[in-house]
Design a protein that fits this description.
Radius of gyration: 34 Å
Shape: elongated
Strand content: 5-15%
Helix content: 40-55%
Number of strands: 16
């Protein structure tokens, strides 16, 4: 199969052109030949060549190679990444040295050996391809880092609860301490891990996210530690594990509470030793990683029931950051809702959509058991289903917990109604008795007496 490459040959000897084209067209898809330097400018303007094969002398009786050096410079000015192979009937060391100094890839003397010429062009092409790939990856990395390095560009909120999280991120980021992020599903634990990474000294290195709940026990060691070819039946090639891949960067182990005890033991050993050995290999790989873990489980309770190793818990939670659920940061709901609304208005081409204040008030009274993730999906659904310019409460398809509770109360039992009203007010004001009493039209003392009456 021919290699996909663009090769240009410039030589004023038509027999040389024909010979080289016949030879190279057997191996490469696009081989072009020109016999005059006057055609070079147009050829370089119209195409980006991987390789240029260039004669050194074009003037009658001239053997200095100055023409070739001049056109070499022209090629490199047009595209510095093009590899240039020079051909001459006069092999002079000084000329070769000067050509290499100006950026030539190699220098061959006519008549050439076909095998040597093909080998030289093959190597030049492979190096050229590798350089292009590296350049692309560097550009991609730069764009990603620029996006990631915007401070708190994904964690949105103005509540005291989220400000506390911001403060903890700033304090812990510059250290090398292992961090455990806790909180309910949908609260944004991965976003916090990414913010810690972006604010750390490892920001220019990799951030690798691993969902521990999605890795089967049989593939655990292979996925995390890597394996050598032939280590087991399906090991058809060497594999780099997540720990090795994240070396010098940050490794984020999400849902770590889902690991079984045997897997916890294997993980603990690697974290303690900061070394890993691939399955089927004896070579020890030294690690230098920042470890961040996350869970929605109560790990101390799991330790008590011997479902989670206490020594592993000590290793992973030098610092613990707890993310509050959305119901405990209700003042952030309008800000978050507007953020998601802006995204989905653009995505679904509905630029005029808006949310009225009374709708925001309704959103703030909802408990959001799925937290930010549920809010995001609710906004997306509302944008899709909306018919007018203003989003209505009905567009969100939310189950109103307060209305459901009140319907469930026997309307003829005043005690039940009073108990429900007190519970709802205390819950709404997050346990602030003064605010709850004010809303109910009671004094603090009267509210306390009713709480005692209903055993609240």
């Amino acid at each position: 199969m021919k290699q996909k490459a663009k090769i240009l040959i410039l030589d004023d000897d038509n027999y040389v052109l024909l010979s080289l084209r016949i030879l190279l067209e057997q191996h490469y898809t696009d081989v072009r030949g020109i016999n005059s330097p006057t055609q070079l400018t147009t050829a370089l303007a119209e195409n980006e060549f991987d390789i240029v094969v260039l004669d050194m002398n074009f003037s009658a009786g001239d053997t200095s190679g100055k023409d070739g050096l001049r056109y070499l410079q022209q090629v490199k000015d047009a595209n510095p990444k093009t590899s240039v192979l020079l051909l001459t009937a006069y092999g002079e060391i000084n000329l070769a040295v000067e050509a290499m100094r100006l950026g030539a890839y190699d220098f061959l003397v006519k008549p050439w050996e076909n095998e040597k010429l093909l080998a030289t062009i093959k190597t030049a092409f492979e190096l050229n391809s590798a350089a292009k790939k590296i350049g692309h990856l560097e550009t991609e990395k730069s764009v990603l880092l620029q996006e990631l390095n915007a401070p708190f560009n994904e964690i949105i909120g103005e509540s005291e609860a989220i400000k506390k999280v911001f403060s903890q991120i700033e304090k812990v980021a510059k250290t090398q301490a292992n961090v455990l992020i806790t909180g309910e599903n949908g609260t944004g634990k991965e976003l916090v891990a990414r913010e810690i990474h972006k604010a750390s000294d490892r920001a220019n290195d990799i951030f690798l996210n691993v969902d521990m709940g999605a890795i089967s026990e049989t593939l655990f060691e292979s996925e995390l530690f890597g394996h050598k070819k032939g280590a087991f039946t399906d090991a058809k090639a060497d594999r780099t594990g997540k720990f090795e891949a994240a070396n010098n960067g940050t490794l984020f182990l999400d849902e770590i509470g889902n690991l079984s005890l045997p897997l916890q033991a294997k993980l603990l050993r690697v974290i303690q030793d900061q070394k890993v050995t691939k399955v089927g290999d004896n070579k020890v790989i030294d690690l230098n990683i920042r470890l961040i873990c996350a869970t929605n489980a109560n790990l101390p309770e799991l330790v008590k029931t011997e479902a989670f190793r206490q020594d592993l818990l000590f290793r992973i939670n030098t610092i613990e950051i707890h993310l509050p659920p959305l119901r405990e940061r209700q003042e952030d709901i309008p800000v978050l809702a507007q953020h998601f609304l802006n995204i989905y208005k653009q995505k679904y081409k509905k630029p005029g959509l808006f949310v009225a204040d009374y709708v925001y008030n309704k959103l703030q009274k909802y408990d959001w058991p799925g937290n930010i993730r549920e809010l995001q999906h609710a906004i997306e659904r509302a944008v899709i289903m909306s018919d007018g310019k203003q989003l209505q409460v009905s567009d969100f398809n939310l189950k109103d917990t307060n209305e459901t509770e009140i319907e469930a109360v026997d309307s003829f039992n005043l005690d039940q109604i009073e108990k429900w009203a007190i519970e709802s007010a205390i819950k709404k004001h997050q346990g602030n008795i003064s605010h709850a009493a004010q809303e109910l039209g009671l004094s603090r003392g009267a509210l306390y007496r009713r709480m005692e009456k209903y055993d609240l």
